[in-house]
Specification:
single chain; alpha+beta; Arc Repressor Mutant, subunit A; 5 helices
Length: 104
């Protein structure tokens, strides 16, 4: 989860992930959407691939990238569990404070 969160901390990588969310794209197609060099985009794609947020398919000399929906769903579930636990803790704290306020 740490690698995925670090990968998502960068805005360019989030934009790349959005581009490959529904349809796979080549590295060249992805790079054409940004005002940066292809090597820079390649580095971002490497980070996304190593964090398992994107999958790569080779066809001849081209590489096609697409979002790894299963990995993203797992990350979402982990974050949701964290958030749910935090909300339960907050709810309990507020209720305890309300009870204490009524007693005084």
């Amino acid at each position: 989860m740490d690698k995925a969160l670090r990968a998502l901390a960068d805005g360019t990588r989030r934009q790349i992930l959005a581009l490959v969310w529904r349809n796979e794209r080549t590295a060249g197609e992805i790079a054409s959407e940004f005002a940066m060099t292809r090597p820079a985009i390649s580095q971002h794609l490497t980070v996304l691939r190593e964090s398992e947020l994107v999958l790569v398919r080779s066809a001849g000399v081209r590489r096609y990238y697409r979002a790894n929906q299963k990995a993203i769903a797992r990350l979402h579930a982990e974050l949701a569990a964290f958030w749910d636990d935090s909300l339960v803790g907050l709810k309990n704290a507020v209720e305890a404070a309300e009870k204490k306020g009524r007693r005084q």
